[in-house]
Amino acid sequence: MSNNLSFLAYYPAAKDRTLRQFIEAFWCEGFLQGERDGATLRLRGRSDDGLARDYAIDVGGASAFQRLRLVGAVRGADDSAGADLSISNVVRDLVRHLEPAPQALERFVAELQNTALKQAYAGTARLDVTLQSPYPWQEAQLGGGHLYHPCFRSRMGFDVDDNLAYGPEFSQPIQLTWLAIDARLCAVHALAGLDYTDFLIDQLGRAEYARLQRRIEAQGHAPAGFRLMPAHPWHWQHCIRLHYADWLVDGRLLFLGDGNGAWLAQQSIRSLSSLDGELRHNIKLPLGIANSSADRILSDHHVHNAPIISRWLDGICRKDPFFADGARLAILSEPIGITLAPAQARPGAYGLLGAIWRTAPEALLAPGEQIFPMTGLCDLADDGALRIAPWLAQHGAERWVDALLEAVAPPFLHLMMAHGVLLEGHAQNTLLILRDGLPCRIAVRDLPGGLHYLPGDCTDEAMLAGLRGAPAYRNALNASAGFAFDRIEARDYLLEVLFFINLGELAYRLDRYHGYAEAQFWRQAARTVAHYQAAQPAMAPRHRRFDLLGPTLQMECLAARRLLGWSAARYRSVANPLCAAQ
Questions:
Q1: Are residues 78 and 208 in the same domain?
Q2: How far apart are CA 266 and CA 287, in angstroms?
Q3: Closest CA to 87 of 120, 49, 60, 131
Q4: In terms of domains, do 415 and 502 share one?
Q5: Could you tell me if 547 and 529 are in contact, meaning their C-beta atoms sit under 8 angstroms apart?
Q6: Which end of the chain has a smaller Cβ tally under 10 Å, C or N?
Q7: In whole angstroms, what is the distance from residue 318 CA to residue 333 CA?
Q8: Residues 457, 539: one domain?
Q9: Do 305 and 168 lie in a common domain?
Q10: Tally of domains in the chain
Q11: Are residues 168 and 289 in the same domain?
Q12: What is the C-alpha separation between 24 and 119, in angstroms, rounded?
């Protein structure tokens, strides 16, 4: 066990950020009581015995989507030195009027406490990555966690030592655990003509594949009756052994040990980059933890849907001259995966066995291009400046922002307008491709987990007939609307995910840390949307229907739903910064 107390120096700032994001999100969504008094937000709370217990925090200004930006630390409203400002105390006092279910409140407080602790440990990580570092290391180290959700680094299930071993910011190479599963119990989902065995031999190399086959033989089984299945080592130790001990006993599931090869955790933690060749596929594995209040298993229907969606999107992009065969949008396809056969699902163990292979980002680059995680755009260097400041200086901030918006926004707009397709374009799923430090196009990933479409307006919709939906209880758990959206849902979803969650954070940080006015950013964003629309005159009726530059939009209450456990999503109306910027 780790007794390293170096995290203590970073804990005050980590606790302040956690509480600040909690207050920002819940205030933004309308679930805290209080009022703004100039440069101070005063919050009304109540103790367990019914006494008033108020708090205050400084306001750093307001930004787009009516988001109040807070700075500094929360304090007792009367600035009394004796106020208990622990996460548990402050959160309980401020949400008591909401009367959350006791179990939900305990879980939420625990997530925030874990977030603060693991954020403090993140401060001890040695970050030696630069703008020129190999992509897997940038992916691992340039993720500060969700900048809106208060449980941005909770990693429920990881203790401190697990976090140090498997948290991406610590960049510890990982060896996969390999299993073999009775071929009758599993299902392979792949692009047409892609054979699972041939694919694994190509990825692992013949020597490693043969070594694992010999491990099956050594346990008295014929390799032909089994399929190899990788697992995250933590997940094997804490989940698979627990839920599938009977299969391990009777030989339906075999433990083969560590694989030869090194992997690096990506920001999602359960997805890994190979360190043995940048053209090898990334791999996505189930991981029995929760982060940002969502579990990180690998749903069976996602494994089934991955090659279907990959083939469909690839076809759309190849046929449409706007995308010019990857010149605007690169799809990180997920050609093959393995999971349990549907009949083998067991209560309490949904999504715990399986894997999806995903095209490596580096495999899509043309000569002279580099790929960069969009989460890294908001990252701060040791000197307090944006890490991308050298690129901004090289090209000029206005030109660089123009190039960024032109690279990022039109592909998402065109997919929705021309093809009825929505992808979840937040920063973790969107990778920026640059040439000489200037954005030129994007890549997108996590296709089965972030796809929605407009029935009746969708290109080649018949190809989606084979999609599987999540089990009913999973939809209820996630307040999910499923794959299909109506027009209003689609428009608001695009504006929220792309412009609020993704680009809105950069707009604010460019203002605060680089002196580039947020209002100017949104003028450029509105101009980018208008230019796209003007270049597509045949779609003018659809542009009017979606009204992307209209005055308001409905945004989901993302943070509060995790505490209050709604069975359906709830929304709030906010001003659209693209309208105000015109």
A1: no
A2: 13
A3: 120
A4: yes
A5: no
A6: N
A7: 13
A8: yes
A9: yes
A10: 3
A11: yes
A12: 18
The pairing of strands 271-274 and 263-265 is: antiparallel
CA atoms within 13 A on the CB side of 208: 18
Instruction: In whole angstroms, give the CA distance from residue 396 to residue 393.
Output: 5
CB of 177 closer than 8 Å to CB of 231? yes
pLDDT of residue 141: 94
Domain boundary at 124, 148, 169, which? Answer: 124
Q: Do residues 169 and 221 make contact, with C-beta atoms less than 8 angstroms apart?
A: no
Task: Return all residues near 278 (Cβ < 8 A) that are at least 6 apart.
Answer: 134, 135, 136, 360, 362, 363
Position 379: which residue type? D
Element containing residue 572 per DSSP (H, E) = strand 571-575
pLDDT for the residue numbered 68:
97
Q: Mark residue 537 as left, alpha or beta (left: phi above 0; alpha: psi -120 to 50; beta: remaining).
A: alpha
**Per-residue pLDDT at 327:** 84
Joined together, the tokens standing for residue 365 give 């680059």
Per the structure block, which two tokens stand in for 552? 């308001």
Gap between the Cα atoms of 393 and 381, Å rounded? 15
Q: Is residue 558 part of a domain?
A: no
Residues (pLDDT < 70) of the chain are 1-3, 79-82, 473-482
The answer to whether residues 410 and 442 touch, using CB atoms and an 8 Å cutoff, is no
Burial of 527 (0-12, 13-18, 19+ CB in 10 A): middle
Token digits of residue 469: 């939906």
Tokens of 568: 């359906």
Structural domain span for residue 35 = 7-124
User: Mutual orientation of helices 397-419 and 518-534 as an angle, nearest 10°?
Assistant: 40
How many whole angstroms separate alpha carbon 357 and alpha carbon 351?
Answer: 16
Residue 462, in any domain of the structure: yes
For residues 17 and 118, give the distance between their C-alpha atoms in angstroms, rounded to a whole number: 12
- Domain-embedded: residue 254: yes
On whether residue 299 sits in a domain, the answer given is yes
CA 435 to chain centre: 25
* CB-CB contact of 20 with 70 (8 Å): yes
**399-418 per-position pLDDT tens digit:** 999 999 999 999 999 999 99
Q: Are residues 164 and 242 in the same domain?
A: yes
Distance from C-alpha of 543 to C-alpha of 284, rounded to nearest angstrom: 36
Nearest one of 578, 329, 581, 335 to 448, comparing CA atoms: 335
Run of H or E including 56? strand 55-63
For residue 123 the two structure tokens come to: 């401060």
415 and 456 belong to one structural domain:
yes
Copy the structure tokens of residue 301. Answer: 């229907």
Residue 284 has phi, psi (to 5 degrees) of: -115, 125
Dist CA 2 CA 5 (whole Å): 9
Confidence at residue 3, expressed as pLDDT on a 0 to 100 scale: 65
Q: What is the predicted pLDDT for the residue at 2?
A: 58
| pLDDT confidence of residue 51 | 94
Kindly report the CATH number assigned to the domain that includes residue 73.
3.30.310.280
